């Protein structure tokens, strides 16, 4: 029994030693872990201090947080919109106070488009690069002392001719005085088609005017005011012109006048641009086949709303726009720049023109 007791006591002592050793190891491990945590914490504190110092450096150099940047962008956009709006309003106000009309003011705001006012509406046509543009600058023309527009640009190859266009509305013209006033050419109306009934008429003063002009050395072209509805009527107008100009020397173009009539009863009020183009092309082709130089007369509306300038680009162009600079970007041959010109030998107003093409 004593032996068994000793064995039991020895066993317990052994267990006690193992327990003490185990607990010691646990304590040592806990101590090591605490030391590791202390070192890690110190390292984190150093990293935090480094980040803090870096942020302070960034802020001192003018950098901003994402939130601050987004707020600054938003404020800048608001400021830009306000400034742009105020600038636009000031520009519009300035032009209106300077006497520019509403249409001219609107046109100045859309330089990449042709703006046309018609029937209480505005139409916008992107300027095309598919057809040739004229190369004149805004200040290339000015009114001379004689009342005629002159070219003052630096292109030595531009030699403009001074001209007028006349009809029975100018009455009896003293063509000798007109020639003495420096007029180089005259476009004389052969006839017209009535806006309502469509009757073809020869201008009362055509024969008198063409004889008077040519007798005094003024080069002449002719035109007809068209209200043709279709190909057949265009041919009728061309034939009337050809029949009446046959005895005379026509050195300037033979022109069809395409413009909308200011009348609620005008027979062309419902015409489409396709129909207008058919009329213009039919007339011009017939005139060209007869050996003359065909041309289309019209204003900015004519070459945008009534016809597409690109579709009639094969013919001569006579553009009507009163005032300078010319509000028409595409090439032209003759420019009618005034309807209130005064020329010695003509009582009252007469249309004034310049020609930039050598005929």
List the helices and strands and how they pair.
Blueprint: H1 2-60, H2 66-97, H3 102-109, E1 113-118, E2 121-126, E3 141-143, E4 149-151, E5 161-166, H4 175-180, E6 185-193, E7 200-202, H5 206-215, E8 219-225, H6 231-245, E9 254-257, H7 273-289, E10 294-299, H8 302-306, E11 316-320, E12 334-341, E13 350-355
Parallel strand pairs: 5-6, 6-8, 8-9, 9-10, 10-11, 11-12
Antiparallel strand pairs: 1-2, 3-4, 5-13, 6-7, 12-13
CATH architecture tag of the domain at 139-355: Alpha-Beta Barrel
Strand content: 15-25%
Shape: elongated
According to CATH, the fold-level topology of the domain at 139-355 is: TIM Barrel
Topology order in helix (H) and strand (E) letters: HHHEEEEEHEEHEHEHEHEEE
Instruction: Note the main sheet.
Output: 8 strands, mixed, barrel
The overall pLDDT, averaged over residues, is 87
Return the structural class.
alpha/beta
Contiguous low-pLDDT stretches (5 residues minimum) are: 1-14
Which strand order does the major sheet show?
A: 5-6-8-9-10-11-12-13
Q: Helix share of residues?
A: 40-55%
**Rg from alpha-carbon coordinates:** 44 Å
